[in-house]
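Thread: Newbie trying to understand structure tokens

Hi all, I'm a second-year student working on a class project, and my supervisor (Dr. K.) asked me to get a predicted structure for one chain before our next meeting. I've only ever worked with sequences, so writing a 3D structure as a token string is new to me. If someone could post the tokens and maybe explain what I'm looking at, I'd be very grateful. Here's the chain:
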Amino acid sequence: MAVFPRPVGPRAAWKDLRAFLSRRSREQTLGAVFAVIATALIVIAFYYDPQVNTKPPRQVIFVENYGPDRTDADIIADQEKRRAAKEALIAERQRQFKELENQFGME
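---
Reply by user tm_fold:
Sure, no problem. This is what the structure looks like when written as tokens:
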């Protein structure tokens, strides 16, 4: 059993399309070709668009592992060290901006 009825088939459709296009002017044929190309480009863009930049980049998270015998004093000392390091980083950043300000003569 054929997929298409007897008078219709891929070869007959191709011959019919060629006969139809041969009766058209060159401008109409070029317009039809450009319309098909533009439509194909849009369909291809919609096909590939969901596959581009959809997965977020890998993110590595480092976790410190502390023992069960850690005291409150150890925790407070670690927090103070981190706070001092953060303040030093902020102070260094402010110094860099002041240096930049002096280079450009801003007040």
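A couple of things are worth pointing out once you decode it. The helical segments are 10-22, 26-48, 72-104. Residues 10-51 form one domain. Feel free to ask follow-ups in this thread.
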